[in-house]
Amino acid sequence: MDDQARPDQSLEDDPRGQSGQSGHASRLLLDTIIPYQINRLSHRMNRYLDRELRSHGLSISIWRVMAVLDHAGAATVNDLAHYAMIEQSTLSRMLQRMKSEGLVENARSSSDGRARTISMTQAGRSRYETVRDITMKHTQRIVDGFSRAERAQLMGFIRRMQKNVETPERDGGKA
After folding, report:
1. pTM, 2 dp
2. Could you tell me if residue 124 is inside a domain?
3. Residue 3, in any domain of the structure
4. Is 141 contained in some domain?
């Protein structure tokens, strides 16, 4: 195994001093791409959280829907899709399952008779409250060792990145 990287080494620690086909010592390109690193971090955290939520009969997607409903009280399918980041067709099927499990109910919107609002049932609220501490523990884990000021600064950076992504490009309005 002298000539090969150990499984615990990163690709940037190539023992031959090379990376890629160029033969030059350098970092793996993906290690320098911030969106990739954010996605990688999110994937790992979601994997751990999903394992714990599944032991309570929930998934991360269902938990996100419940978190939106906990905050809003009730929401339209469009609002849930937007805030929970779930495609509307997938969300509709998920809401059907949640309704059959007694976690949510729907009603006609008082402001728009064509729209339906979704809200949590008492059973849904109870299940959500059971896992809230679990999700908060995972949230805290990601910033363990950060000071209050560092957490605030990180949230500021994240908000700026979100704004950058949501703002159309300045060169001709292309997105």
Report:
1. 0.72
2. yes
3. no
4. no
